[in-house]
Structure formats: C-alpha cells, structure tokens
Amino acid sequence: MVEGALSHEDPRPTKLRVDGLSAFYGPKKAISNVSLDFPERTVTAIIGPSGCGKSTLIRCLNRMHEVLPGTRIEGRVLLDGEDIYDGDPVSVRRRIGMVFQKPNPFPTMSVYDNVAAGLKLNGIRDRARVDAAVIRSLKQAALWDEVKDAIDGPGTRLSGGQQQRLCIARALAIEPEVLLMDEPCSALDPIATAKIEDLIFDLRKTYTLVIVTHNMQQAARVAEFTAFMYLGELVEFDRTQTLFEQPKQKLTENYITGRFG
Amino acid sequence: MSVGPSAAGPDPPDAPPSEPANPFRLIFRHRVRILDFLFRNSTLFFAVGILAILGTFVLVLVEGSKEPILRYGLNFVAGSTWSPNQAIFGALPFIFGTVMTSALALVFAVPLSLGIAIFLSELAPKWIAEPLGYIVELLAAVPSVVFGLWGLAVLVPFMRDTVDPPLRSVNAAASHAIHYPIPLFAGSVIGQDVFTASVILAIMIIPTISAISREALRAVPAAQREAALSLGATSWEATRISVLNYARVGIVGAIILGLGRAVGETMAVTMTIGNSDSIPNSLFGQGQTIASLIANEFFNDTPGSLYVSAIIEAALVLLIITLVINIGARLLVWRLVKGAGGPVE
Amino acid sequence: MRFDRNARRRWMNWIMSALALLCVVVALVPLGSIIYTAVTFGGHVLSFSFLTSGYPLACSPTPSQPTCPVGGIGPAIEGTGVLLALSSLFSVPPGILAGVYLSEFGRGRLGRSVSFFTDVMTGSPSIVVGIFVYTLFFLFFGPRGVFSALSGAVALAILMIPIVTRTTEEALRLVPNSVREAAYALGIPRYRAVLHVVLSAARGAILTGVVLAVMRAGGEAAPLLLTALGNPFGFQGLTQPSASLPPIIFNFGTSAYSNQVAVAWGAALVLIIIMLCISLTVRFALRSKLS
Fold first, then answer.
1. Which of B267, B269, B312, B317 to mutate to test the interface with C (most CBs of C within 10 A)?
2. For chain A, what are the domain ranges?
3. Which site among C188, C191, C199 would you substitute to test the A interface, given the most A Cβ atoms closer than 10 Å to its Cβ?
4. Which chain C residue's Cα is nearest to B29?
5. Cross-chain Cβ contact A87/B29 below 8 Å
6. Mind listing the pLDDT tens digit for each residue in B263-316?
7. Domain A14-106+177-256 = CATH 3.40.50.300
8. Which of B47, B145, B266 sits opposite C249 (nearest CB)?
9. Which of B205-209, B317-321, C187-191 has the lowest mean pLDDT?
10. Is A103 helix (H, G, I), strand (E, B) or coil?
C-alpha cells in the first residue's frame, strides 16, 4: 500500500528496516507485505485497531512470532543491514529486546535475579559485572530508588507498574540495541502509565524503540514517528505530528478522528 | 493449544548462502543449536523410555513364563486345579478370587465413595468440605501392608465375632425357607476369608474413587448447576438431575480406576484372605487372588523352576487384566478432562 | 398440596445430605481405627533406640521369662533410606526430563500417547513390577543376582517414574507462556530457558510430585519381597539383599511371637506418622502455593 521510507530528510540512519514482510498463522495471513524503516535512537509507535496486525508485526522484529506453533513469515527484516532471519533467533533476541503487554517477571526469582537472568543465562558469570549491569539497568528503568532495599525480595511482589519497569530493566540488562514494547501500559493504571511513558522518552537517547499501542494519545506523547496499520497492512507512516495533523490517507484520518466503526 | 508438526517450537531455518562470515557468531550459533538439539532429544529419549519400560514389562514376563505357556496353553487360565506337586497349574481359582474380591469391594466402595464425592463437592459448605477432603485422602497415604496388619488385628476378629454370625443366621434361615443352600454367607466362620478381604479392599479404594469422582464433579460447569437451581431445584435435586448426569463418564472412569487398584492390591489381601488354592464355596471360604498367590508362593521353589515360572505367568495374566482396566478407565477420564471433542486443532 | 410437596422435597434434600455425610463418617472410621490401633499396639515400643537398634530375637513371654527384648527397626530404617535414595536417583531425573518433553516439546501424537501410557503405568500393580524386575534380573544376572538392593531400588524407581513424569508435565503446563516468551526475548537459548526459567517457575509443584512418588515407594512392601528380599543387618552393598521397613511389617506382623508383632506395630506407627506428616505438609504447601 505504502512504502514506509520517509519522504523527508532525516539525519539519523536506519537501524531496523522491514522489507516486504508478511506473517502467517497457519493458513491465515496476519500482516501483508509491510515495508518500513525505523531510524536509530527514536521512538516509533505502531497504532491501529485491535486485530490489525500490529502485535504480530512487532513480534516479527525479534523473531518471537515463530515461537508460536504453526507460524511463518515472508520477506526480510534488516538490523544494521543484516537480515535477522539469516541465522539464529537466539542471538537476534539478544540485540533486540522485548517488553510484553502484561508484566511477566520470572515467578520464583528475586528482583536482582530477574534483572540478572538474561546475563547469567547468556553465560556471564563475573559477579562484579553482573552487579554493575543490574544497578545500571534498574536505574535506567527508573526503578532503582524504589527497589534498592528489596532487591532480594521476589519480583512478583512489586506493584504492576513496578513489575513492568522490572521487565524493562531485565530487557535492558543485556544491552540490546533495539527495544520492542508490545502495549507495555495496557495492563497498568494511569500513574504507572505516566511513569513508563517518561521512561520511554528517556530511553530513546540510548536505544531505538518500537512501541505498539492502541492508545493514540500515548503515541502522540512519546513517539517521534508513527505507523498506522489496518487489516494487516501498513496504511501510513510519518512523523507523529504530521500523521496526526495532516494524514495523507482517508483511512488514517477516519481512525484518528474516531470515525471508525 | 494447536497441534501440528511444527508445534515443537522454533526450528531455526537452514542457513541461507548469504550468511555473513563472522566466525564468532557461527560458533555461538552452532553450540547453541547443538545443545538445544541434545536437550530436546534427551528429554525425548526418557519419554520414549517410559513406553519402552511398559513394552519390556510384557516381553520379560512372557520370556519368564515361556515354559508353562507352551506346556499348558489356555488350560492355564481355564484349569481350576493348582497342584504344584503334580505339576498341574490351573490359575482359575486365583482369577476367580481376584474378580470376586474386586467386584465385592466395588459393591461396598462405590456407594460410599459417591456419597463422599457428592457431599464434599455439592452439598457441604466449602469450609468443611476442604479439611474433610484432606482427611479422606489421608486414607490413601496409609501403606497397604499397614492395612493388612490392621486387618489381622482388628477387622478379622470384628468380622468373625460381630458381622459374620448374624449374616450366617440370615443366610441359613433364607436357605431353609427356599429349601436351597444359598452359597453366600455359609460355612464355618474364621474371619480370614474372601468377605473380609473384600471389605478391606473396599476401604482401600474409597479414596481413589471418591477423589477422581470429585474431580469429575468439579469439572461440571457452574451453569449446569445454576440451570437446575434457577428452576427451583434443591441442591440434592440439582445434583441428581444435572450434575451427576453431566459427570457420569468421569464417575464411571473413577470406578474403573478403583477396580484397577483393587485387582492389583497385594499385601492387605494376602494377610486377610486366608490363602487357599481352591475356589471358595462361599464368601466365608478361604481363597487367593493372583496378587496374594505371588506373595505367598513365590518362594516355594527355586528361581527358574516350573512352579516359579507358572507364578510369573499368573503375574502376566494380572498385568494384562490391569492394563485393560486402566486403559479403559483412562480413556474415559481423559475424554472428560480434555473435552469430548478430542484434540483441538 | 403444593406446600406438602415442597416440604417433602426439602426433607429429601436434608436426608440425602445426611446420608452423604454418613458416607464420609463411615470412611473415616477405618482411618481412625488404624491410627488408634497403631498407637495402642505400637506406641509403647516407640523410642529413639527403637529406631536404631537391631531386630529382636523371636520370643514370647513365658512364666520363666515374663518379658521379651523389644529390639528395634534400625536395619529396616537404614535399608529403606538407602533404597529410597537410590530409587529417587534412578527415577527423578529421567522422570523430570520425560515430563519436560511432554510439556515443552511433545504436543503431537507421540507426546499424547506417552502421557496416556504413563497414566496407565501408574495403575500397574506393584507386585507385578516386583515380578518384572525379579525376572529381568534373573534373565541377566542369574539366580544369584536377583535379590539385591539394586533390584529393589529399580523396582521402586519404576513405580516412581510415572508419578514424577506426570506431575512434572502438569506443573510445567501451568507455567504461563508469557514466562517462556520473556526468556526467549532475552536471547536465552531454549534449553537454558527450560532448565533455568520454566523448571524453576514450577519447582514447588514438581517437588510435590517427587515427594508423592517417594511416599508411594516408601510404603510398598510387595515388590520388595521379591527383589530386595530383606536381611537382618540393613544395607550390605548394592548387590546384596537389603532390609526395608514395609516388608518387616509383613514378616513380623504375621509372626507367632508377641515381641515381633509388637515391633511390626511400632514400625507401622513410624510409617504412618511419616506418611501422614508428609501428606499434610504437601497439602498445605500446595495450598499456600495456589492461593
């Protein structure tokens, strides 16, 4: 439908490029021939009505789509010009982290162990290095001040918003280059949501972020770029402000003005 | 949960030719792939190992009882004389003893177990149902040999002195009335007999039947109950007209599983059935189940002898009986748990 | 008329509830009687030295010798400990791995049939398992190799494997998929995700299954009569017959000498106490886990 390459000048290079991507659940096509570029160190939001394929798209970006049985994709996803579908999903996921819709801390692990899990299970045993990474990630996730006294307590005892930030810290600890967030605030109350949004705003200085949201205000608040999807296709991709104020497609306009039914 | 060839998880696609020549990543990738492969296949190995054990079971028992199988053929299960001294091995008395005690145990245990299951899951308030449920299940934690010891010390004298004599009088009066000897509660009463063994079996299978029946009742959707209650039914009526009906497949499965347990039960029966190699002529007669035969007579001859091989063949018969019973019961219970439609695609 | 009918229905409801409650009470009578009898007949011999000293020589009180030595069940405790440790070693790792296969990989036809036959195997009589192991050892090692601690442990392990496997499978199925996804998204290899994250999330329930399996094996007498056989000294090496708790309850319980019968009751009381304690602990541990 549209090519996702930006029409205007942008100084930042492309970090992640999606090229003609289609994804399937068994015989059912969930997204169809999507192409789009995510510039480095920006926040890109993917919006659209439920069932439009936005979650499927984001799960294709670090090969989580194929974890579900009976799935496959066509097309390419390029990270720094290399196709992530060449080779091993495990190493891809170390470079492209993910935060899920519902907070999912590891149930039997402490706060510390949750954050350290990625490092330890990737074979890093050096205690000083793990300690440093845990503290750095918790600080980056704006959780350190709240949990520093309970770092050995169970991760599941934190509040929902804290758990989600714990999951963000866990993803950051392995120093990914890209962070994918699949509706990270949908299970949280407004105050916790505001905290996560602030955090997203800060993280873009270091990471390339892609966030799926069904909340247009949220996209407008945190994202520099926004992609609108409908029925598995990419309808429009532009600077957030442009997309919301001067949408080029009629469909986009209908959606953002709430004339959808 | 969908099922299919790729259900096993992410299979990394084969490396395309455009693979970047990064030796480090290559080594990492292959190491991970090899370890994943090894892990997956070692779990597969042990899973298949379980099937292999079950298969070996039958093979080994057949091998161990080759001689009597070839020598006696079907007479082994049809013959009613078991006389090791004359090398006559007919296992019918033991098959009969097994069937009789198990059937009788079901007669006692099924109503009680269903009463328990219905009380605990339908009629009792939750605060009393839970602790009572635990206590009933504690009965399952008592080892079989302890049941046997208790049977010898408490149940056998109780049956001999309190339960059996009145039954015998009634039986005698009834026989006299119809001028025909009723072979139920007749003969001399010594307490160690088929009847006592059946009672102890019944006690032992109550926890099995009631626990699985409770599961079956618990699986009944609340809407079923509510449909009946909203018509103005009392809780008993709701149980009778909707819940029991809905759960009947699971309850039948529970009963058959209890039967499976009764058929194979050894120690308690061995200690109370009186141990006689002939078919008992009444419930007060002494008998033997296949399991008690094994426990009692296994050491009567040297390993490898015809006598011991014949006992191994009896074990084979017992295994086949329990396999049939358990497969049937599990099919019923599984259908209940997994939903009637089989695997969901 | 209508009032009468409703009154009858209420009566019926009440009667059926009372009958059902009566069933519960009837089932609890044997349990109470078993515990009461064990305490009455076995309580007086129970002491610390009963758990450690050797079996008593057969003896019944006579006018010339009014009391008999009680002795103890030391060899049986030692033998049962060794047998259970060995059988856990043989059954727990394979059982858990098989359970991992059933839950994590084997969602197809093979997995379903393994799952099914594992359930069927749980119902195979323990005495038949005893005969099986006896015959297996006889075929491989001849008559001298049959009666040993090793064969006893193998028999118990065969009884334990299906329990461990099925509880592991069920426990792993209860771990939400989001936990697995979180692990994969960190770039953790699958085998590590399963071993360190999924198994760890289910460890409470798996432990429960292992305890239940040990409990079942610990109470079994029948298969041990045909395999570990028994000896008066406890554990004498892997290839020698070994004493154990349940068989001596049978052997002494059917003895004609009063002091041996007393030892059987003491042993039964010890076994009951252990089983009931484990059973209750598991129950309450499980309940706090679920809530």
1. B267
2. 14-106+177-256
3. C188
4. C189
5. yes
6. 999 999 999 998 888 888 888 989 999 999 999 998 888 888 899 999 999 999
7. yes
8. B145
9. C187-191
10. coil
Count Cβ atoms below 10 Å from residue A76 Cβ, excluding itself: 16
Q: Which residues contact C41 (CB under 8 A, 6 or more apart)?
A: B153, C261, C262, C265
How far is the alpha carbon of C177 from chain B, nearest alpha carbon, in Å?
Answer: 11
pTM: 0.84
Domains in chain B (CATH in brackets) are 95-318 (1.10.3720.10)
**B53 pLDDT tier (thresholds 50, 70, 90):** very high
Number of other residues whose CB lies within 10 A of the CB of residue B300: 11
SS (H, E, C) chain B: CCCCHHHHCCCCCCCCCCCCCCHHHHHHHHHHHHHHHHHHHHHHHHHHHHHHHHHHHHHHHHHHCHHHHHHHCCHHHHCCCEEHHHCEECCHHHHHHHHHHHHHHHHHHHHHHHHHHHHHHHHCCHHHHHHHHHHHHHHHHCCHHHHHHHHHHHHHHHHHHHHHHHHHHHHHHHHHHHCCCCCCCCCCCCCCCHHHHHHHHHHHHHHHHHHHHHHHHHCCCHHHHHHHHHCCCCHHHHHHHHHHHHCHHHHHHHHHHHHHHHHHCCHHHHHHCECCCCCCCCCCCCECCHHHHHHHHHHHCCCCCHHHHHHHHHHHHHHHHHHHHHHHHHHHHHHHHHCCCCCCC
Of A70, A82, A85, Cβ closest to residue B4:
A70
Shortest alpha-carbon distance between residue C81 and chain A (Å): 30
Cβ of C17 within 8 Å of Cβ of B123? The answer is yes
Residue C250 pLDDT? 92
Using the structure block, give the residue that is written with the tokens 């009687």: C33
What are the tokens at B276? Answer: 């006689």
ipTM value of the model? 0.90
- pLDDT tens for each residue of C224-249: 999 988 888 888 888 888 989 999 99
- DSSP SS3 for A109: coil
Smallest CA–CA distance from C203 into chain A, residue = A108
pLDDT at residue A122, rounded to an integer: 77
